[in-house]
Structures are given as C-alpha cells and as structure tokens.
Design goal:
alpha+beta, GIY-YIG endonuclease, four-stranded antiparallel β-sheet, 4 strands, 30% helix
C-alpha cells in the first residue's frame, strides 16, 4: 500500500479524531480482500476536508481512508500527483472529461 500507516474507518466517530493538520489522503473501499482507491486529495486541514467528503462524497462506496501529514505545500502537491498517477482513482476523473 503506497500510503504509510494504517487505514481508518470513514465514519463520523473516526473523523472526530483526525488532527487538523495539512496532508494528503486517500479514500478507499474495502471489498473484503483489499482496498480499492476511489479518490486522492490534499488539504491544509485534513479533518475539515474529510468531513466535507463525508457530507458530500466524491465517489460512492467509501469505507476507509489513509492519510499522511505534509506541511509543505510543494511536497504535498507532489505527493498528491504521485498518488493520483499511481492509483488513477475514479473519483479524481469525474467531471474532467
């Protein structure tokens, strides 16, 4: 898994524990065998952005998320581009065609 760390449940209780830090994140669906990447993004406040996605999901079926802290905007942007290129998540292509 290209994200460091572990997966967290994409639910109200878990989102309340997310730190308000800058970083990149991936929204995933667990299919019983592995995680399928649905969306990759970045934010200057992970808790706020994940809450926005919880209330208005960029893709259907999100069950988990991964996150990495990256305070530097240039590094954060580069990491987001790398992850989007690696996963090619469907939520990142909706509306771009």
């Amino acid at each position: 898994m290209p994200f460091s760390g572990r997966a967290f449940r994409f639910d109200d209780a878990t989102l309340n524990t997310v730190n308000e830090v800058a970083g990149v994140y991936g929204l995933f669906q667990w299919n019983g065998y592995n995680y399928i990447c649905l969306y990759v993004g970045m934010s200057d406040n992970l808790r706020r952005r994940l809450r926005e996605h919880f209330n208005n999901p960029p893709a259907r079926g999100i069950t988990h998320f991964f996150g990495e802290v990256h305070q530097n905007l240039i590094l954060r942007s580069a990491r987001e581009r790398t992850l989007i290129s690696e996963f090619n998540p469907p939520g990142n292509t909706i509306g771009t065609r």
